[in-house]
Design brief:
The protein is an alpha/beta fold and about 300 residues long. Among the domains are: about 1-70, Multidrug-efflux Transporter Regulator, Chain: A, Domain 2; about 165-260, D-Maltodextrin-Binding Protein, domain 2, CATH 3.40.190. The protein has helices at about 10-15, 20-30, 45-50, 70-80, 90-100, 115-120, 140-150, 195-210, 225-235, 245-250, 275-285, 285-295; strands at about 5-10, 35, 40-45, 80-85, 105-110, 125-130, 135, 140, 155-170, 190, 220-225, 240-245, 255-270, 305-310. The strands form 3 sheets. Strands 4, 5, 6, 9, 10, 11, 12, 13 and 14 form a 9-stranded mixed β-sheet that branches. A 3-stranded antiparallel β-sheet has the order 1-3-2. A hairpin with a 4-residue loop joins strand 7 and strand 8. Helix 1 (about 10-15) packs across helix 2 and helix 5 (about 90-100) packs across helix 11 (about 275-285). It is globular, with a radius of gyration of 21 Å. The protein starts with 5 loop residues before the first strand and ends with a strand.
């Protein structure tokens, strides 16, 4: 039995004192070899030591990128890594379809919308998923992409639409139905991390409705995923959290819909990405993808594949 020590992406990021997205970028470029255990990406300790010491590790063919230049080129041409950033489970379905269409290996990073978009600006992601509400225009995603991807040409495609709102205890015992209800003294919120789409939705609605953060009990309490927020409500640590209908139903919570959000994909328009953009556009138009997503329930695929915005 192989007892070699290995690290998660989070552990590698801590050891290198960089972000998780930087680690994923190094893996995507073949600079740090990796392997998967279920959905989790892991890195062997020996490979990490080799990277840190500046040495090129030698790996078994078919498991890791080869150490020779010719084999590295062959690896890149025949198994190109595509890094998809975002948390929704529909991205797993998309990644599976991408791998079926060509010589690609889909990697996932589970960052929030804003951090994912900033990573794309720095060249660390290939496909970014967004659900970022702009309170001034009432529009999703496009206003943020325009401000952040300055100097880039890009394509925004719709992946799905979904309901966002309040996840609450079964029966909604606190009778939470509006944003102003968050000000009630007995209502405990479980918030999301800065930069997540759910946090942006909350912040924009608080601004629009003139609700100070200081009036919300639990505003400073943070979880980093829809499921973690839902779990905190199930356990009684909070009364309400911002989330999506699918997750609320998964854990047996009630859901109060407040808005239909557009969950979009962003890709940079350049020669290097031309093939993957065409592949993704084709996949999003297929009945098989839409059927798989619809089978999950609580997703609207009526606009899936539509070009939301394409800069020129």
């Amino acid at each position: 039995m192989n007892n070699e020590i290995s690290y998660t992406v989070e552990e590698v990021a801590t050891l290198l004192k960089v972000s998780k997205l930087t680690v994923y970028d190094l893996i995507k470029k073949g600079k740090i070899p990796s392997f998967k255990v279920g959905r989790q990406m892991r890195v062997n300790a020996k490979d990490l030591d080799s990277f840190i010491s500046g040495k090129q590790a030698v790996h078994l063919a078919g498991r890791h990128p080869s150490s020779t230049n010719n084999k590295q080129k062959h690896q890149k041409e025949n198994n190109q890594h595509i890094l998809i950033s975002g948390q929704d489970m529909v991205l797993d379905i998309l990644g599976k379809h991408i791998e079926k269409k060509g010589n690609y290996k889909a990697l996932r990073t589970y960052e929030g919308s804003l951090n994912s978009l900033l990573s794309m600006y720095k060249g660390e992601c290939d496909i970014v998923s967004l659900h970022m509400f702009d309170g001034d225009t009432g529009e999703y995603n496009v206003p943020f992409v325009r401000k952040i991807l300055i100097g880039f040409q890009y394509t925004i495609l719709n992946l799905v639409s979904r309901k966002a709102g309040f996840m609450v205890q079964k029966g909604n015992p606190q009778h939470i139905t509006t944003w102003n209800d968050l000000k009630k003294k007995n209502i405990r919120l479980m918030n999301r991390e800065i930069g997540s789409g759910a946090r942006i939705l909350l912040e924009e609605q608080l601004r629009i409705n003139h609700i100070p953060h200081s009036e919300i009990l639990g505003y400073e309490n943070i979880e980093t995923s829809h499921l973690s927020v839902a779990s905190s409500i199930v356990s009684g640590k909070a009364d309400v959290g911002i989330g999506i209908e699918k997750v609320a139903k998964m854990v047996g919570l009630d859901f109060i819909p407040l808005i239909t959000e557009r969950y979009d994909l962003v890709m940079i328009n350049n020669q290097q990405n031309q093939e993957i953009i065409e592949i993704v556009e084709g996949i999003l138009r297929t009945a098989s993808l839409k059927e798989e997503i619809q089978a999950l329930g609580d997703y609207d695929v009526s606009q899936t594949g539509q070009v939301v915005y394409k800069s020129s």
